[in-house]
Amino acid sequence: MDEQVPASLAVMEYHEKLPGECPPANVECPQTNSLWRLMASVNVTAENFKSEALANPTRVFRDPCGGRSISLVPTFAQAAAAAKSPIMRKKNFTHAVEIQYNPVAGVWHLDKPTHCHFWPYFGFNYATCIGVVKELP
Length: 137
What we know:
Layout: E1 4-6, E2 26-28, E3 34-39, H1 52-55, H2 64-67, E4 70-72, H3 76-83, H4 86-89, E5 95-100, E6 106-112, E7 115-120, E8 130-135
Antiparallel strand pairs: 1-2, 3-5, 4-7, 5-8, 6-7
């Protein structure tokens, strides 16, 4: 399933304003049907689907495109491990929500085996793609 999708073929209206050259010209689609999003509560809301740039508008990002994405991980085990890392521990994540991979929801880019960027299209409704919510160990 090493599917390469040129981002240039995608609809270019995104959920938030993206910097130039974003998303990348070629993206690697996830190898799984679902991914996981870390949360600081059991309740799933639109706040859980803000990019770091929207959540922290004064922060300067080394990678502005990455800062405008929603970060996901391929497995619950990876979500649990990420939440325990020194940087992520400060965010007080307690739960993770399963997100169904749907190519028509936006551009997805698996940039490393344990991380996926997601740039949702304009009108993205998180309620259409969420699955189970699990408490982190």
